[in-house]
Automatic annotation (TrEMBL):
CDD domains: LPLAT_MGAT-like. The chain crosses the membrane at residues 43-61. Coiled coil: none annotated. One of its GO terms (molecular function) is 2-acylglycerol O-acyltransferase activity. This is Acyltransferase. Keywords: Acyltransferase, Endoplasmic reticulum, Lipid biosynthesis, Lipid metabolism, Membrane, Transferase, Transmembrane, Transmembrane helix. GO terms for cellular component: endoplasmic reticulum membrane. The lineage of its organism: Eukaryota, Metazoa, Chordata, Craniata, Vertebrata. It comes from Sus scrofa (Pig). It is found in: Endoplasmic reticulum membrane. Its EC number is 2.3.1.-. GO terms for biological process: diacylglycerol biosynthetic process; triglyceride biosynthetic process.
């Protein structure tokens, strides 16, 4: 049975919902790719064909931009629409230690959740006051290279929400900048961790993820553990057993886009069943104390393993220190896989 939303709700809540709708669908690659590609191709058959031609040249000249730090257009980061999206959940950013603007940082965001709401809201917009809490720090967030193959959309995520490509060259470029003040955010668990997302789950795909540690060692970038409480509670897991049509759709989508979305129940407009929209519920992103890292251009496996173990301990300590504040049962602990 379809569950309809209330007909009369405050206008403020309607704006929050609309802001979240545009955000969710802009991140759903199948829909965003189709729309942007259709516009790009469609213009070729109109009197505005020259726009697509000029954009093709622009795209060629800027082909390496996602690996070179993207572009910074702060006006989009300050759009009021992001504040409505923040208030939909709401999302809150909590600082537990200062970040020295003369240093560079690599921040590990956990958990991934479905849409990495905490990482995107806090690092890619100013809705939670990142620049006020951490003055002098310029945030960057890595995302799938696949997003940068879509015309027009690639420019939006680079210039507007400060996303960069998830590859070695991109990380090296940001963390090697002189003068400090650069923070590279990586949602380390990726697609595998997204598949584990379910309310009340604290399972992180992290035990064998050590590339970020090696990257931090090579550049001497301090490691910052970050945990978003409530991230996994925005979506409800549904059964997806082998042999059913949902499992087949999920596997096809994953093969094409490397993104997992079909295994979850979302809310909708004007009903609560069939449109991709997360449930309302607080998401609190807690930024931990930086772990000092000695610059080691060619780190050994032993050095990587040692720093990785220290990171796991600091992340667990951060989780244990704050979990009771954000309604996590005392008997719940982080599980690394």
């Amino acid at each position: 049975m379809v569950e309809f939303a209330p007909l009369f709700v405050p206008w403020e809540r309607r704006l929050q919902t609309l802001a979240t709708v545009q955000w969710v669908f802009s991140l759903l690659l199948p829909s965003s790719a189709q729309i942007c590609t259709a516009i790009f191709v469609g213009l070729l058959f109109t009197r505005f064909w020259f726009i697509s031609i000029l954009y093709t040249f622009w795209w060629y000249l800027e082909r390496d931009r996602p690996r070179r730090g993207g572009r910074r257009l702060d006006s989009i980061r300050h759009w009021h629409i992001w504040k409505y999206m923040r208030d939909y959940f709401p999302v809150l950013l909590v600082k537990t230690a200062e970040l020295d603007p003369s240093r560079n940082y690599l921040a590990g965001f956990h958990p991934h959740g479905i849409l990495a709401t905490g990482a995107l809201t806090n690092l890619c917009t100013e809705s939670t006051g990142f620049s006020s809490l951490f003055p002098g720090i310029r945030p960057n967030l890595m995302t799938l290279n696949l997003f940068f193959r879509v015309p027009f959309f690639r420019d939006y995520i680079m210039s507007g929400v400060r996303l960069v490509s998830a590859d070695k060259e991109s990380g090296d470029h940001i963390l090697s900048r002189e003068g400090g003040g650069n923070l590279l955010g990586i949602v380390i668990g990726g697609v595998r961790e997204a598949e584990n997302t379910r309310p009340g789950s604290y399972k992180l795909v992290l035990r064998n993820r050590k590339g970020f540690v090696r990257l931090a060692l090579r550049h001497g970038a301090a490691l910052v553990p970050v945990f978003s409480f409530g991230e996994n509670d925005a979506f409800d897991k549904v059964e997806n057993l082998p042999g059913i049509w949902l499992r087949w759709c999920h596997n096809v989508l994953k093969e094409i886009t490397k993104i997992t979305l079909l295994r979850f129940i979302f809310r909708g407009i004007p009903q609560h069943n069939f449109v991709l929209l997360p449930s309302r519920g607080p998401i609190t992103t807690v930024v931990g104390t930086p772990i000092e890292v000695q610059k080691t251009p060619n780190p050994s496996q032993e050095e990587v393993d040692g720093l990785h173990q220290r990171y796991l301990k600091e992340l667990s300590r951060l989780f244990e220190a704050h979990k009771l504040k954000y309604n996590v049962p005392s008997d719940q602990h982080l599980e690394f896989c």
